[in-house]
Amino acid sequence: MIEKNISEILKGYRDADMVKRVIHEIHQRVTQPWAIMEICGGQTHAIMQYGLDQLLPDEIELIHGPGCPVCVTALELIDQALWIADQNDVIFTSFGDMLRVPGSKGDLFSARASGRQVRVVYSPLDAVRIAQENPVKQVVFFAIGFETTAPANVMAVLQAEKLGLDNFSILPANVLVPPAMHAILGSPNNRVQGFLAAGHVCAVMGYWEYPTIAQKYNTPIVVTGFEPLDLVNGILRTIKLLEESRIEVENAYPRAVTFDGNQAAQSLIKKVFQPVDRKWRGIGSIPNSGYGLTKAYMHYDASNRFNSGDIKTEESKICIAGEVLRGLKKPSECPAFGTLCTPQSPLGAPMVSSEGACAAYYRYGRKSS
Ligand code: SF4
């Protein structure tokens, strides 16, 4: 039966045979229930797309983490973005995913439809170019993302400085993975017993921060990638560590990740950004979990340049994104899933984003948990 499912589900995938072998080994190794969190939304989507969750033994539960930057960007920041985009002589730039994320009253897409200058860019450097081409406008870039996008956001600030542009700024919204892992594992409701760490974040930052986390919370961590073979390998190595009661950190993605990470990128980040407390949507404030601009670059901070005053936020009363993002509930347990909330008419960010867990469940037909 498993054999048939694997062959059907992995049809056309180039490493299907190897995935099959790893899945078999997982089945042989597991002796008891384990809950493993994949923190990254990109990994959640790959798991759903290739049906890997359906090939694992029943004992293994995959808990989907908050690793979707669009989903965790605080409502206050989205409302602030909407306020800035509504000002005259502003061109507000953003990655496309953010345009449909609901704020308290509307989204950036509606702001654009009502005539405001909201533009989709594919890189923060595109926003710098727009600032160069529009010297009488203030150009603001919505700098969202995890550690992965931080180097590009930094490069945009440094490029604006080099070009002497005083009409460019960013709305800093980067969030950081290790503080989120502390928050999840330190929570009284925590059910996570093993972690799959996100390979792309570790490619930039390394994984030198993880041994302390693993020891503190008695939780093994395996760094892995996004291909089905990477993911099942990561799961197998986590299962081996759990079954053997070994609290260790392993790197199952050595083709992209080293212990120290990309030192050049890290020193550029340090020059322009510093850790600040940041509110995560649906989760709350996590100490030192975001990047703000350092004193030397503070004048590129759009929240200083535009005084939006006090912003009163209002979350959807129906959306349970907070519980989904903390791994306490599956998207299919939300009463609005697939009915009131769909990708065409999303109530919450996890249904909008290409990395959101609700969008993954909807797209790949996971109607029940
Ligand atoms: S299905 Fe929609 S309403 Fe429910 S948690 Fe996900 S985004 Fe929120």
CATH-defined fold name of the largest domain: Rossmann fold
CATH class label of the largest domain: Alpha Beta
**Overall body shape:** globular
Query: Radius of gyration, Cα only, in angstroms?
Result: 21 Å
First-to-last CA distance: 21 Å
Helicity range: 40-55%
| β-strand number | 11
Give me the secondary-structure category: alpha/beta
Number of helices: 18
Low-pLDDT windows of residues: none
Q: Which ligands, by name, code or SMILES, are bound?
A: iron/sulfur cluster
Domains (count): 3
- The CATH homologous superfamily of the largest domain is named HypD, alpha/beta domain 2
Q: What is the average of the pLDDT values?
A: 93
So, CATH architecture of the largest domain?
3-Layer(aba) Sandwich
Output the helix-strand order.
Answer: HHEHHEHHEHEHEHEHEHHEHEHEEHHHH
Tell me the strand order in the biggest sheet: 2-1-7-8-9
Multimer state: single chain
Textual characterization of the structure:
- The chain has 3 domains: 2-69 and 181-251, 3-Layer(aba) Sandwich (Rossmann fold), CATH 3.40.50.11750; 71-176 and 261-305, Rossmann fold; 321-363, no CATH class.
- Helices cover 41% and strands 18% of the residues.
- It has 18 helices and 11 strands.
- The chain has helices spanning 2-9, 16-29, 41-49, 52-55, 69-72, 75-85, 108-113, 124-133, 150-163, 177-185, 199-205, 210-217, 228-243, 263-272, 302-305, 321-325, 349-352, 357-363; strands at residues 34-40, 60-67, 90-94, 118-120, 138-145, 168-174, 194-198, 221-224, 249-251, 273-280, 284-293.
- The strands form 3 sheets. A 5-stranded parallel beta sheet has the order 2-1-7-8-9, with helices on both faces.
- Helix 2 runs parallel beside helix 13 (228-243), helix 3 (41-49) runs parallel beside helix 18 (357-363) and helix 8 (124-133) packs parallel to helix 9.
- The model has no long low-confidence stretch (mean pLDDT 93).
- Bound molecules: iron/sulfur cluster.
- The site of iron/sulfur cluster has 16 residues, from helix 16 and helix 17.
